[in-house]
Amino acid sequence: xxxxxxxxxxxxxxxxxxxxxxLICVFxxxxxxxxxxxxxxxxxxxxxxxxxxxxxxxxxxKICPAGFAVVNNFLGAWQAGDLPAMYSLLDDSVKAxxxxxEASADFKLLEYKDYKISSARKxxxxxxxxxxxxxxxxxxxxxxxMIIDGKSFKILMPxxxxxxxxxxxxxx
Length: 172
Hints:
Layout: H1 10-36, E1 47-49, H2 65-80, H3 83-88, H4 92-95, H5 100-109, E2 116-123, E3 126-133, E4 142-149, E5 155-156
Antiparallel strand pairs: 1-2, 2-3, 3-4, 4-5
């Protein structure tokens, strides 16, 4: 009985070519996405830094100096455990349905980490600040979004119990 040895055929080459083309497409999309976040955009959708706190230096504070101050003041108050200062940085529309007692209880549950502002951008009437800490290299990267009202320059809360939007799904 004769034994047949499989040789690479046309079908295998098609699979290989499809795989290579897929890699090229992924590389092209990744490069375009990276470039998109490192170029100037129009006044209503300006982006600075890299949204997930990657390889960029410090984000440009000129986009919203008051927003940078609010986010940094909130992070400093959080580190110091200064609950009244944290609450004072919330927008009045948030405070209307969110008492100091409720906010204090929620703020006490937040685990402090040494967050830094990774990027900021204007989106409509608000400013979005991406804050991050840790490292992708060590697997402990944590990324959150804070939203600052463009008129009051105070913190808007995406949910009733947290000043952060933690889902990466809606980061960009």
